[in-house]
Amino acid sequence: MVKDLSNFQIQYIKGVGPKRSSLLSRLGIKTVKDALYYLPYRYEDRSNIKKISDLIYGNMETVSGKVVSAEVKKLPGRNLKIFELLVNDGSSLLKGKWFNQPFMKKNFKIGQEVLLCGVVKRNPYWGIGFEMDNPEYEIMTDDDSLVHTNRIVPVYRVTSGLSVRQIRSIMFNIINTCIKDVHDTTPAEILERNALPGLRESIANIHFPDTSADVELLNRGTSNFHRRLSFDEFFMLEIGLAVIKRNRVLEKGISFSPKGAILDRFIEILPFKLTKAQERVFSDILKDMKSHYPMNRLIQGDVGCGKTIIALMAMLVAAECKYQSALMAPTEILAEQHFINIYRVMEDSGLKICLLTGSGKDKPLNKIASGEIDIVVGTHAIIQEGVIFKNLGLIVIDEQHRFGVMQRALLRKKADNPDVLVMTATPIPRTLALTLYSDLDYSVIDELPPGRRPVKTLLFNSGHKDQIYNIIREEVKKGRQIYVVYPLIEESEKTDLRSAITGKNAFERLFPEFKVVLLHGRIKAGDREEIMASFKRGEIDILVSTTVIEVGVDVPNATLMLIIHAERFGLSQLHQLRGRIGRGSHNSCCILLAYEPYGDEARKRLDIMVKSSDGFRIAEEDLNIRGPGEFFGTRQSGMPDLMIANIVRDATLLNEARLEAFNLIDRDPDLKGFPPLRKSLETFWEGKIELFKTG
Ligand code: ADP
Ligand code: MG
User: Fold this and answer.
1) pTM over 0.85
2) Terminal-residue alpha carbon distance, the chain
3) How do residues 273-329 score in pLDDT, each as one tens digit?
């Protein structure tokens, strides 16, 4: 009989029992299947145990010998206890030292056979002998020559009460007795096409590799056997997304049939010509809107490439066809800015536009319900329960990875399958787009409007403020305007960061001859608007603000941005901020002022900002620095966790898995020919989304 390993409780494995099984469950291991997927986090090559006399200083080495002495020593004059273990292997002696862990002593007995692994050092006083500080150790018994030594040995994360040896023995036992019950659900032809080994072989080899295996690849998690398991995860993820996408296309959506009058008039009054890229992307959108299935399209493009106009044009198409549309931004401030911008260009159109945010008073709910309002601009408040549309036809989401695949699915239920357009506020790397947004269709605006000048970016530390002040003075004298951006509105006790309020006072003192004004999110919306308008009219020389100016603000005469505490900002935020300048015909410059000390990651971020102005490149680097963890396994993403695969490290594999997955769903949408695969998929996506309608 075939055993279902995901229902096989670990407690019934020989050598486990109730006590150990409760310890194992702390590591997330409840069933045999959990155990098989509890992978070593590193490997030690013990196929090569050295004679102590042959050790090389500075190398990571493994030795095995008998305990000669085990003593706790006190350093005279210092409050430090050192546990010292002296080991003899017949060739020489080696001393293992553990600092401030006197309790270690009780683990060892004279004459015991032990294995030590660590970096080889000389005695610090005499410069001779062999020592290891805090080595990994194992106490050997007679019968374990196969599992714990003479091989490449897996090292697992442990929990107190359960040693790495105990876990290793349990794993050895499980692999030997249960691997035959592992069943490969990935179609054989797909494995063959992608040169991937079988599942049993892969799991067995990841836990107990062959002596011939490459330890470095194993440690990086990129051995062929690791690749196989990573492929499976990607494959499951992408099949899920392919099914979600297919289910959507099968549904009936609105088929818009605009005559084009409103849109034509709008394009006529636009003070510029659309770029080729904008035209191409808009025609993608128009095609979706006219088709009978619900649109679900992602628009990517760098800061300033002109996404908002395209979104607005789509909303005009909806309005002309007597449908309402909604534009949803991630924050209230962004929503306000979109509202202001759209209101400005639409004033004479006769269309009704309103703002809807969580904190806004006088919510125009009745007018939305009656259909009097054509375009609603707001935050997530738009999709809250109390908000009822008469006939919502189009939803535009302006977002920064804040909307997951599930929320998008829910959104379509808000009305009768409205069209959905997702705009990323900053570009996201291709690998992320492939995973987080595989269920969407995809268009890129890969061109900036003509006449944009590259922005020069300079990095200063706080010792060079005078130089910065001189640059500011020169620039204002030339008639240009300046943004100064602070991370905080007000000083706080929790941090020693400089703030906009004190900054504004400082700049006023420094430049009494210039007009300095403060702008931040706690200033009333109406006043904020007035300040921005006044800045735009050129009445303000230096605008001291927080990141409220991050998006949407457009003042071509502003040519210099000074970012205070640049080391504290994230890359995409810095890129967004910098996108506020370089919008006119003058040369622009962004000055990053960083306060030391700051860490390596901050240094990398600042370096990239100085070197590159390409949003896509910056996004890739951001992902490399931060790692994909930020995006997966969060409630926001709504995606299943990736336990083994890593979209940065395994990007090529992801692409292969995606092609295979979409291909398979094309050929066999319900996976009728692959019942076991279908079952694994349901488990993988459990609690997230129901892929296949039951029955
Ligand atoms: P994004 O949202 O992509 O960052 P926006 O839609 O805010 O960019 O557009 C940035 C600025 O460029 C706006 O002032 C907009 O009016 C302007 N703009 C958009 N398209 C064009 C174009 N084809 N030619 C010139 N300016 C444009
Ligand atoms: Mg925009």
Assistant:
1) no
2) 27
3) 999 999 999 999 999 999 999 999 999 988 888 898 999 999 999 999 999 999 998
Q: What is the pLDDT of residue 695?
A: 42
The pLDDT of residue 2 is above 80: no
Q: Which of 276, 298, 305 to mutate to test the pocket of ligand 1 (most atoms within 8 A of CB)?
A: 305
Position 486 pLDDT exceeds 60: yes
Cα(426) to centroid(ligand 2), Å: 9
Q: Which of 485, 477, 482 is nearest to 593 (CA)?
A: 485
Please name the fold of domain 261-445: Rossmann fold (3.40.50)
Q: Please tell me the distance between residue 531's alpha carbon and the centre of ligand 1 in angstroms.
A: 21
pLDDT score recorded for residue 48: 80
Q: Is the CB of 618 under 6 A from ligand 1?
A: no
CA of 443 to the centre of ligand 1 (A): 17
Dihedral sign for Cα atoms in the order 297, 303, 305, 309: positive
Average pLDDT over residues 492-515: 90
Contacts for 90-94: CB closer than 8 Å, 24+ residues apart: 90/51, 90/65, 91/51, 91/52, 91/53, 91/54, 92/51, 92/52, 92/53, 92/130, 93/52, 93/68, 93/129, 93/130, 94/52, 94/55, 94/63, 94/65, 94/130, 94/131, 94/132
Q: Is the C-beta atom of 308 inside 6 A of ligand 1?
A: yes
Q: How far apart are CA 27 and CA 38, in angstroms?
A: 9
Domain ranges of the chain: 48-150, 261-445, 455-612
Protein residue with least CA distance to atom 10, ligand 1: 304
Residue-level pLDDT at 630: 64
CATH of 48-150, picked from 1.10.10.200, 3.20.20.60, 3.50.50.60, 2.40.50.140, is 2.40.50.140
Quick: pLDDT tens for 129-153. Answer: 999 999 988 888 766 567 887 789 9
Q: Is the CB of 449 under 6 A from ligand 1?
A: yes
Max avg pLDDT among 2-16, 309-323, 427-441, 517-531: 309-323
